[in-house]
Design brief:
Blueprint (H helix, E strand, L loop, with lengths): L7 H50 L5 H25 L1 H10 L13 H8 L10 H4 L1
Helix pairs in contact: 1-2, 2-3
Length: about 130
């Protein structure tokens, strides 16, 4: 028996190619973001830890240099809130909901009462869908 060739097979392969391409772009972007974050972490904190070990072994590290390396590590912590919104759309959306400076003008500001009603188990509860969350 021979199975006749249908037109839906090429479409399915095209859809899977688009699906794979879309997810590979997301994976590439995620790995790029992770690489940048880890790279900045190592650039900022590795000199501190190496100097810390050298200070414990020989005591030959000037205190001013050690302070500079400590502050370099602290600067890494201040760079993270800048890096995350640049590379992560979901992070931008979440911050836009809660920070007045990042909110779009068309978005209504949630009131404290509505937030407490939403977080409590009392009162009417709206059905939460993925569209409402995002």
């Amino acid at each position: 028996l021979q199975v006749p060739h249908t037109l839906s097979q090429p479409l399915a392969s095209g859809e899977s190619r688009r699906f794979t391409n879309k997810h590979s772009k997301k994976a590439l972007k995620a790995s790029l973001t992770l690489g940048i974050l880890l790279g900045m972490f190592f650039v900022a904190w590795l000199p501190f830890f190496v100097t810390n070990v050298a200070q414990a072994v020989c005591g030959c590290v000037p205190s001013g240099f050690f302070d500079v390396l400590t502050w370099l590590g602290y600067c890494n912590s201040t760079m993270n809130p800048i890096i995350y919104p640049l590379f992560m759309r979901d992070f931008k959306r979440a911050m836009g909901k809660f920070l007045p400076c990042c909110r779009r003008s068309a978005e209504p500001r949630p009131s404290a009462i509505s937030l407490s009603m939403r977080n409590s188990n009392s009162g009417p509860r709206a059905v939460t869908s993925l569209k409402n969350v995002l």
